Amino acid sequence: xxxxxxxxGLTKRYGALAAVDGIDFSVESGTVFSFLGPNxxxxxxxxxxxxxLRRRTDGxxxxxxxxxxxxxxxxxxxxxVIPQDFRFFEKITAREAVEYYRALFHTNADPARLLAxxxxxxxxxxxxxxxxxxQKQKLGLALALTNDPEICFLDEPTTGLDPHARRSIWAxxxxxxxxxxxxxxxxxxLEEAELLADHVAIINHGRIIAAGTPGEIIRAHxxxxxxxxxAPAELATYLAQRLGVAATADGGHVSVELGDKRDxxxxxxxxxxxxxxxxxxxxxxxxxxxxxxxxxxxxxxxxLKQEARS
Length: 310
Ligand SMILES: Nc1ncnc2c1ncn2[C@@H]1O[C@H](COP(=O)(O)OP(=O)(O)O)[C@@H](O)[C@H]1O
Ligand SMILES: [Mg+2]
Prior knowledge:
Layout: E1 3-14, E2 17-28, E3 32-36, H1 43-50, E4 58-63, H2 72-76, E5 79-82, H3 94-105, H4 111-117, H5 133-144, E6 151-155, H6 163-178, E7 182-187, H7 190-196, E8 199-204, E9 207-212, H8 214-221, E10 226-230, H9 234-243, E11 247-250, E12 253-257, H10 263-273, E13 279-284, H11 288-309
Parallel strand pairs: 3-7, 3-8, 5-6, 6-7
Antiparallel strand pairs: 1-2, 1-4, 8-9, 10-12, 10-13, 11-12
The chain binds adenosine-5'-diphosphate and magnesium ion.
The site of adenosine-5'-diphosphate (ADP) has 11 residues, from strand 2 and helix 1.
């Protein structure tokens, strides 16, 4: 698959702060790539460098084969952008907003068709200041699509939206992918990345701390799968002795880490053979959120300890 975005050793300094600190990643055409990280991680800085809106300090960046800073004019014809906290003229209607962008890009995009694509046709004659947060973001998406872009850059398109509005933005993002476009999505919502993205990079303090498909990240950084039963604490001791596994008891539940999912059968047999009362079992594995919280937490704990030492 051709590469839409290629980033090597990208660095951006604001004075003494390395907001982006030597990152590498690439995005394949036609995929959804999610850049996931807490506030201040460096997402917007990276995104705006890729869009040709900020100048990098160091490193190599190619978007559709172009250098975003030096070939900005050529690039802007081929990408669509919704900036973080997208805003527009308050008194302009959705239709007029699309017409305005159409004139900017010299295209003949049809406002009704574009607004239908983002499920906003019913608001075609509504003024910007009367739209809800979700509707404003959808208008932003429609504007980003005016020039029929190959890549859409969406910087936290769902932050602050209610669950219903977020879901309808997700539907539009899925549509973008279905139409063959590449989507570069920043978010701090874990489940959003897990649901939509083919590939995820987790960024914190300007560094990528994990990357891959959500499944790969969970396998690389998550804890092993666990089986949990309702049982007295003695069962944990019994299982640890009999199987040599890591078993823990907590609040009337006993959990066992499985080295391999096929061990589940052995563990259940041992539980039954224990003669202890047990009930309702379930299995659990780490979500992307569990992994994210732990990785970011470890990095921040490390930074705090270093600060305390210096
Ligand atoms: N124009 C700027 N000048 C100085 N510092 C900036 C500027 N833009 C961002 N920063 C700092 O760089 C870091 C990364 O910011 P940003 O890229 O906006 O993160 P995110 O989008 O992940 O929240 C933050 O510490 C932020 O305060
Ligand atoms: Mg940001």
